[in-house]
Amino acid sequence: MKHLPPHLQRRSFLKLGIGAAVVLAVAGGAVALIKPGLVNGRLSPSARLLMARVGQAMLQGTLPADALEQQRAIDAVLQRTDDFTAGLPAHVQAELSQLFGLLATAAGRRGIVGLSPSWEDATVAETSAALQSMRASGTELRIQAYQGLHDIVFVPYFSGEESWKTIGYPGPRAV
After folding, report:
1. Residue 167: CB partners within 8 Å, gap ≥ 6?
2. Nearest to 98 by CA among 21, 30, 19
3. Alpha-carbon torsion angle 143, 146, 152, 154, nearest 10
4. Cβ atoms < 10 Å from Cβ of 73
5. Pair 113, 102: CB distance under 8 Å
6. Which of 110, 99, 121 lies closest to 38, judged by CA?
7. Could you give the 3-state DSSP secondary structure of residue 138?
8. What pLDDT digit, counting tens, does each position of 109-159 carry?
9. Distance between CA atoms of residues 77 and 157, nearest Å
10. Using an 8 Å Cβ cutoff, are 120 and 45 in contact?
11. How many Å apart are CA 154 and CA 119, to the nearest integer?
């Protein structure tokens, strides 16, 4: 029986895989520490851009048609997101900060979201397609990241009275 050359042996592949995973984890953690996604419990500028683009893509069809009203709705979502994250326990804020920090980088945007253009340059259609790819991914990390982004966009949006009119909800009934 022939032996595989050393560079093609199973053990070499395993070592390479483990080494690559460690390098990516350390690099991702270092990037998140350098550029946190939350500062004092609130979205950093890069996280605000990320969440604005994600919000525009996820909320298609529910946002007002007028561009100015649409921007006001996204700004309201970002403000409610800030209010929400500021009240979270420190360990949850740290995890969100790492997620936002990582997704705000080119490597995180491409590797996890699957979006090539920058958050600033991405169209709503490109962002939406990348998010749907995350949602349908076979990779647990991508699915969990999508679910987190989904919840962080939808809860603040639908908790605001300005969104109720757009979706036809008359508001809570007086008791």
Report:
1. 62, 158
2. 30
3. -110
4. 22
5. no
6. 99
7. coil
8. 999 999 999 999 999 999 999 999 999 999 999 999 999 999 999 999 998
9. 5
10. no
11. 19
Both tokens of residue 102?
């990582």
Q: How far is CA 99 from CA 23, 33, 93, 96, 144, in A?
A: 17, 11, 10, 5, 11
What are the tokens at 94?
């740290």
Sequence-distant (6+) residues with CB within 8 A of 132 are none
Which letter, b or e, does each residue of 136-149 get, where b requires 16 or more Cβ atoms within 10 Å of its Cβ?
ebeeeebeebbeeb
- The pair of structure tokens assigned to 5 is 């050359």
CB atoms within 10 A of CB 11: 8
Q: 61 and 42 in contact (C-beta within 8 Å)?
A: no
pTM of the prediction? 0.78
Residue 82 to residue 96: CA distance in whole angstroms: 12
The pair of structure tokens assigned to 98 is: 């790492």
For residue range 4-63, what is the model confidence (pLDDT) as tens digits?
555 555 555 455 556 556 556 656 555 555 688 999 999 999 999 999 999 999 999 899
The structure tokens listed for 151 are 């919840």
